[in-house]
């Protein structure tokens, strides 16, 4: 189940609506099937909302012109209730004196809704989120602070919500969903993502579970679900604003593919003390488990191979969604390496929770250094690739791989020569510069392709899985990553005329065996695209990549043509690569 909504609240000295709309556009990768804004002025709360993307709905409803210097906003990715205007947030209660935006899932909403209906409350949506507004109204006689604490104690599930009240107070609460306060010179933001306010302030307060924030007048108060005061430091967020802009590129996805020229080198810039601490925990562990979801799981597979081959450390990989059974072997002598770009992925955080209960050390690999995963880790390292807005992971994946190389190099200094000037850094720049036009041309001829198989051996198999994932995410093509050595154990039966196979086949120890697979495929009439540093007559199309003297670096180079192919094939099929259907960037519930 996916629930990836963006929520934002603002109270300050500027007009709220245009700020909220701008913020929602920046966070739209978290959900884009509907949008809504509520503003407060002179004792009234006005709500405008509808289905569609932020720019479309804002223009049709003239949201930016809404008056008031206080407001809340939301972009939704539907879970409970269809994509309709009535199910869009914000939601109000019966008296229209409260409006709420919510990210997460209220697991006991049916029970609460039935209870509220019996006492006369009338619901106007099918969402689980609306119960929050009604509960706040039920407990209004306790005052706003009492209403918030009483409501939070009734909710089960995962949630972060922001509410605006009839006196102009805004408030937010969180449990297992991110919620961050932006502290500006002339006001406050309450947001699910720092990108919601980064263009206005780089000062942030990261709320913990069971925290509630209340902004009344110009005063901010943070307390827990029991009403007790809570203190948090103000953190300066380091990301540069310019990185959030698409610049000259048509899509964030294309920009982020091109960003890899720089970001793979950035992953080498690590704090030496933290790297040393990270590697010591890893090397001292009696058992090592590595977890991640989606693209991050493919990074975990690469790391497992690299640790075994170069550092002689045996590790087990576990999909984060399978952690309940997959992590049963953890104990006080274990270490769990957790990959997550956002650091807020629900399945990954659940894995961390399981590992902590069993006494294991947590090692985080993140892109957001202030995320829940980073804060839960005994040591963490950052991929340092800056904000990634495109829903499909590109630069964060290669950043993770570059960081894995650096970890292995630190653990086994006489093996990989990884760092800012490593061989793969120049190779990544070269493949980006040389491949785009050829791949764009190739993709334009693949518009009618609906099934693609990607084959790879050893470390190339996780890249086949990653390439298949990108093609599914962006181009809506059925794509399947296959271990090349397993071709004769089933997949060969699918090879026939009009079948398209992409073979990851650089000149390393796997080269000759994989080339034999290509001949077997061609004998059945299928077409073969070879991604390699060596051409062959068996390839119908050859995508050339640079030759690597260190064969461990091939995965980070060969994945980039696959990212490009997914992007350009999406365009050929008239799909928006930045907003793939049914998906969103950070899956914050299980």
From TrEMBL:
<dbReference type="GO" id="GO:0097367">
    <property type="term" value="F:carbohydrate derivative binding"/>
</dbReference>
<dbReference type="GO" id="GO:0004360">
    <property type="term" value="F:glutamine-fructose-6-phosphate transaminase (isomerizing) activity"/>
</dbReference>
<feature type="domain" description="Glutamine amidotransferase type-2">
    <location>
        <begin position="5"/>
        <end position="218"/>
    </location>
</feature>
<feature type="domain" description="SIS">
    <location>
        <begin position="442"/>
        <end position="580"/>
    </location>
</feature>
<feature type="domain" description="SIS">
    <location>
        <begin position="278"/>
        <end position="417"/>
    </location>
</feature>
<comment type="function">
    <text>Catalyzes the first step in hexosamine metabolism, converting fructose-6P into glucosamine-6P using glutamine as a nitrogen source.</text>
</comment>
<dbReference type="InterPro" id="IPR029055">
    <property type="entry name" value="Ntn_hydrolases_N"/>
</dbReference>
<dbReference type="GO" id="GO:0006487">
    <property type="term" value="P:protein N-linked glycosylation"/>
</dbReference>
<keyword id="KW-0032">Aminotransferase</keyword>
<keyword id="KW-0677">Repeat</keyword>
<dbReference type="GO" id="GO:0006047">
    <property type="term" value="P:UDP-N-acetylglucosamine metabolic process"/>
</dbReference>
<dbReference type="InterPro" id="IPR017932">
    <property type="entry name" value="GATase_2_dom"/>
</dbReference>
<dbReference type="InterPro" id="IPR046348">
    <property type="entry name" value="SIS_dom_sf"/>
</dbReference>
<dbReference type="InterPro" id="IPR035466">
    <property type="entry name" value="GlmS/AgaS_SIS"/>
</dbReference>
<dbReference type="Pfam" id="PF01380">
    <property type="entry name" value="SIS"/>
</dbReference>
<dbReference type="InterPro" id="IPR047084">
    <property type="entry name" value="GFAT_N"/>
</dbReference>
<protein>
    <recommendedName>
        <fullName>Glutamine--fructose-6-phosphate aminotransferase [isomerizing]</fullName>
        <ecNumber>2.6.1.16</ecNumber>
    </recommendedName>
</protein>
<dbReference type="GO" id="GO:0006002">
    <property type="term" value="P:fructose 6-phosphate metabolic process"/>
</dbReference>
<dbReference type="InterPro" id="IPR001347">
    <property type="entry name" value="SIS_dom"/>
</dbReference>
<keyword id="KW-0808">Transferase</keyword>
<keyword id="KW-0315">Glutamine amidotransferase</keyword>
<dbReference type="Pfam" id="PF13522">
    <property type="entry name" value="GATase_6"/>
</dbReference>
<dbReference type="InterPro" id="IPR005855">
    <property type="entry name" value="GFAT"/>
</dbReference>
<dbReference type="InterPro" id="IPR035490">
    <property type="entry name" value="GlmS/FrlB_SIS"/>
</dbReference>
């Amino acid at each position: 189940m996916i629930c990836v909504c963006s929520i934002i609240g603002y109270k300050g000295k500027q007009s709220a609506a245009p700020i909220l709309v701008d913020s929602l556009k920046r966070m739209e990768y978290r959900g884009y099937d509907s949008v809504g804004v509520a503003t407060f002025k002179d004792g009234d709360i006005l709500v405008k909302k509808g289905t569609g993307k932020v720019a479309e709905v804002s223009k049709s409803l003239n949201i930016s012109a809404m008056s008031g210097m206080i407001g809340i906003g939301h972009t939704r990715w539907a879970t409970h209730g269809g994509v309709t205007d009535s199910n869009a947030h914000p939601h109000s209660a019966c008296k229209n004196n409260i409006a709420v935006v919510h990210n997460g899932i209220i697991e006991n909403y049916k029970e609460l809704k039935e209870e509220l209906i019996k006492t006369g409350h009338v619901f106007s949506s099918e969402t689980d989120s609306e119960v929050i507004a009604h509960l706040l109204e039920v407990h209004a006689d306790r005052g706003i602070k009492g209403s918030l604490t009483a409501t939070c104690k009734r909710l089960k599930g995962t949630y972060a919500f922001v509410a605006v009240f009839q006196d102009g107070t805004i408030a937010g609460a969180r449990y297992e969903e991110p919620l961050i306060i932006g502290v500006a010179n002339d006001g406050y933001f309450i947001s699910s993502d720092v990108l919601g306010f980064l263009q206005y302030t780089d000062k942030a307060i990261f709320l913990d579970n069971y925290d509630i924030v209340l902004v009344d007048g110009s005063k901010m108060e943070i307390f827990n679900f029991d009403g007790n005061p809570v203190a948090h430091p103000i953190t300066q967020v380091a990301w540069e604003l310019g990185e959030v802009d698409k610049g000259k590129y048509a899509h964030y996805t294309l920009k982020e593919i091109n960003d890899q020229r720089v970001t793979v080198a950035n992953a080498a810039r690590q704090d030496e003390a933290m790297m040393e601490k990270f590697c010591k925990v890893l090397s001292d562990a009696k058992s090592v488990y590595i977890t991640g979801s989606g693209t991050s799981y493919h990074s975990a597979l690469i790391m497992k191979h690299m640790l075994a081959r170069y550092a002689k450390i045996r590790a087990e990989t576990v999909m984060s969604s399978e952690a309940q059974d997959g992590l049963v072997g953890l104990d006080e002598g274990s270490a769990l390496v957790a990959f997550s770009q956002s650091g807020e992925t629900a399945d990954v955080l659940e894995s961390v929770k399981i590992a902590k209960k069993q006494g294991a050390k947590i090692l985080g690999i993140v892109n957001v250094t202030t995320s829940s995963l980073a804060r839960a880790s005994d040591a963490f390292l950052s991929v340092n690739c800056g904000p990634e807005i495109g829903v499909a992971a590109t630069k964060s994946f290669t950043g993770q791989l570059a960081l894995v190389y650096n970890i292995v190099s630190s653990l086994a200094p006489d093996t990989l020569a990884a760092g800012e000037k490593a061989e793969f850094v120049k190779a990544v720049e070269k493949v980006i510069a040389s491949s785009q036009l050829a791949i764009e041309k190739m993709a334009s001829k693949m518009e009618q392709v609906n099934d693609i198989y990607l084959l790879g051996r050893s470390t190339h198999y996780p890249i086949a899985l990653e390439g298949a994932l990108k093609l599914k995410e962006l181009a809506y093509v059925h794509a399947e990553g296959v271990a090349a050595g397993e071709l004769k154990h089933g997949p060969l039966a699918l090879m026939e005329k009009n079948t398209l196979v992409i073979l990851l086949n650089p000149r390393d120890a796997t080269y000759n065996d994989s080339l034999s697979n290509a001949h077997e495929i061609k004998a059945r009439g299928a077409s073969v695209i070879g991604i390699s540093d060596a051409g062959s007559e068996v390839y119908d199309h050859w995508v050339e990549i640079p030759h690597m003297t260190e064969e461990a670096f091939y995965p980070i180079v060969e994945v980039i043509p696959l990212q490009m192919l997914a992007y350009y094939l999406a365009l050929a099929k008239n799909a928006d690569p930045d907003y793939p259907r049914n998906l969103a960037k950070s899956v914050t519930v299980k």
